[in-house]
Hints:
single chain; alpha/beta; Aspartate Aminotransferase, domain 1; four-stranded antiparallel beta sheet
Amino acid sequence: MDKPFDFRAWSHRASDWAADYLEGVGDQPVRPQVVPGSISAQIATAPPEAGQPMEEIFADFEQIIPQGMTHWQHPRFFAYFQSNAAPAAQLAEQLATAFASQCMLWQTSPAATELEIVMVDWLRQALGLPETFKGSLQDTASSVTLCAVLTMRERALNFTGNKEGLSGKPPLRIYASGRTHSSIDKALWVAGLGQDNLVKIPTAPGPLYEMDTDALRAAIAEDRAAGRVPAGIVICVGGTSIGATDNVKEVCAIAKEEGLYTHLDAAWAGSAMICEEYRHLWEGAEEADSIVINPHKWLGVPMECSLHLVREPELLVRTLAIQPEYLKTHGKDGIVNFSEWSVQLGRRFRALKVWFLMRCYGLEGLRQRIRNHVTWAEQLAERLAQEPDFEIVTDPILSLFSFRHVDASKPDLDAHNIALVNAINDDGRIYLTQTTHEGQIAIRFVAGQFDMAESDLEIAFEAITEVARGL
Ligand SMILES: *Cc1c(COP(=O)(O)O)cnc(C)c1O
């Protein structure tokens, strides 16, 4: 038999634990200092037959798990892109878990669907996009991009692909800059279009590394001449490696001339568009057919929350709606069933955390954080540029830049900079990751943790320069 436990008391205990954790997380090394297998070695190899007391479970949790976590809520997490969980939004996530609702249809939780409609619209307004955009909250940008690529496919095939499959049909072509995220490649794999039909267009040599639109036009013309069918263009704003940003307006104009569907991937950078002064980076976004932004990255909403905005929901719903009798809602007109807007049927109640976040911090509070991150990252880049043994590889695009330590005594600078990333992460004060740029290793720096302070950038400067000079 399982042991009874006091849910109320343990919920309080878990809340206290979370509050203590967030207060103290900045004193921990950002990346755990563990070797592979060391955590699993501490977990029972088989599940228990009899229930165990919560005291034991919780004690094991405290002892085993935190020391093996990479601390994404650490104020000096400067790697990848941040995955923020603003405390007010964490509260909403706890409440949503209490409902454990499956929000696939309006009738499976009317409040969840209706709050989602309104929250999508709040986000749209915050981003300065026209009210013609409607949308939903999905799990990840990868899923959203898959939906967009499927829409491109079905639209180009006059909606025959789902029924007839792709065999015997001409190759469908999708265009994107060579600097777009790997989730675009994967979307083509999953959609059955094939990697070879993702046409990667060369990019300009900075400062924004946008796709070469002459090359785009030429690629489309060449495909048409060869009997292939252009279907869509994926536009990148704030690419993952170095922040590459296409000329949205120009690409959308080409798409319009050519009759192609456009999907704009602003998974990271999109959150910054709540600040008017950064919107020049995606000027023309209102012309895109589909946009993805991850509020679970920079904005402060806990994983998972990916905003999918579309200008014509009918195209998406025609691509993805499937209604066996057991999913029909009879006698209710004008309702939205969000499972018809995505690949998955089942969906969490995601709108609640967006509501809590936007109300608790206000748009001004959210904008101020993003502005600080951008300003502080620019300042750090300037300081590193002034050091004789450092060079900036790519200038800041919003709060992301990349750099290298150019120690003349080191024969292999790539190996030296990889060693530097490892040494910095072992040091524990900050956490960074690397990328390759123009065939060279560069170290990425991105500011964006929800509660970071200017002093965290000071510590970053010290950690980077000290560790580099000690190697
Ligand atoms: C993070 C990121 C993605 C992937 O996001 P997921 O939500 O993890 O699928 C896609 N594109 C860009 C530009 C990103 O930064």
